[in-house]
């Protein structure tokens, strides 16, 4: 009986320790037209399989540390599995209005600044303790610049930076809205300069310069193709 009781008491701590891989995977602040009623924070479990626990919380503060929200994340899914690679979309009610599907956790508390702030994902430990799982600081004098309207902050293709939004819900559904989410197209990049020969006639120092109208992330889908009729 005592052994069963000790096992029961240890279970929440064991689950919380298994949540070390839960992290912020994407943050969206405003539609391409500047509409800030559409905002979301996508979470991903990059660690071992776990479950939703009542101690998991998401906090957002402005750069001056003013708290905008501190919300629990397990009320709807308490005790349900959160497998490795699974997502959770936390968003404003505007996500359903503009993107056509309700966020997994939809709340009017979501109020992100487009300029600067800090997001903290953590497990509450006791009355005042925290086990921090992930933090994202963005804005002026921060490790990451705020993205332009229509773009997300994400590190899915490298260090945190502005990327084409790709919000994913817990059931695997990906949301989209061309009028709100600014997706990468071939028109995002252009050839701004190229050189074929030096004044001396040497052609061993050739280059092609690319330019983008906003901050983008280079991916392996981008290609340059050149055809020549002679050397």
Structural Rg: 22 Å
Biggest sheet: strand arrangement:
8-7-2-1-11-12
Low-confidence stretches: 2-13
* Overall average pLDDT: 85
Report the count of strand segments: 14
**Level of helix content?**
under 10%
- The end-to-end distance, rounded to whole angstroms, is 85 Å
Principal-axis shape: elongated
Largest sheet: 6 strands, mixed
**What is the ordering of alpha helices and beta strands?**
HEEEEEEEHEEEEEEE
Supply the helix-strand structural class: mainly beta
Number of contiguous helices? 2
How much strand? 25-35%
Structural summary, described in words:
The protein has helices at 2-17, 94-99, and strands at 22-28, 40-45, 50-51, 56-62, 67-72, 81-82, 87-91, 105-106, 117-125, 129-138, 152-154, 161-163, 190-195, 207-211. The longest helix has 16 residues, at 2-17. The strands form 4 sheets. It has a 6-stranded mixed sheet, with no helix packed on it. Strands 5-4-9-10 form a 4-stranded antiparallel sheet, with no helix packed on it. It has 2 helices and 14 strands. It is elongated, with a radius of gyration of 22 Å. Helix content is 10%, strand content 32%.
């Amino acid at each position: 009986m005592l052994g069963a009781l000790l096992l029961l008491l240890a279970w929440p701590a064991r689950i919380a320790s298994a949540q070390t891989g839960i992290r912020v995977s994407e943050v969206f602040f405003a539609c391409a037209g500047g509409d800030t009623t559409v905002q979301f924070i996508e979470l991903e479990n990059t660690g071992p399989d776990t479950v939703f626990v009542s101690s998991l919380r998401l906090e957002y503060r402005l750069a001056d540390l003013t708290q905008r929200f501190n919300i629990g994340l397990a009320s709807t899914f308490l005790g349900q599995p959160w497998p490795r690679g699974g997502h959770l979309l936390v968003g404003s009610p505007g996500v359903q209005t503009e993107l056509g599907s309700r966020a997994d956790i939809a709340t009017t508390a979501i109020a992100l600044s487009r300029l600067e702030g800090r997001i903290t994902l953590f497990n509450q430990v006791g009355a005042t303790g925290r086990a921090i799982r992930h933090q994202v600081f963005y804005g002026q004098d921060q490790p990451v610049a705020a993205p332009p309207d229509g773009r997300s902050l994400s590190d899915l293709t490298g260090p945190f930076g502005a990327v084409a939004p790709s919000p994913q819900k817990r059931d695997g559904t990906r949301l989209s809205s061309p009028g709100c989410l600014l997706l990468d197209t071939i028109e995002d990049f252009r050839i701004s300069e190229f050189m074929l020969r030096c004044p001396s006639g040497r052609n061993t120092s050739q280059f092609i310069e690319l330019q983008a109208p906003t901050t983008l992330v280079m991916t392996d889908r981008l290609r340059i193709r050149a055809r020549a009729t002679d050397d």
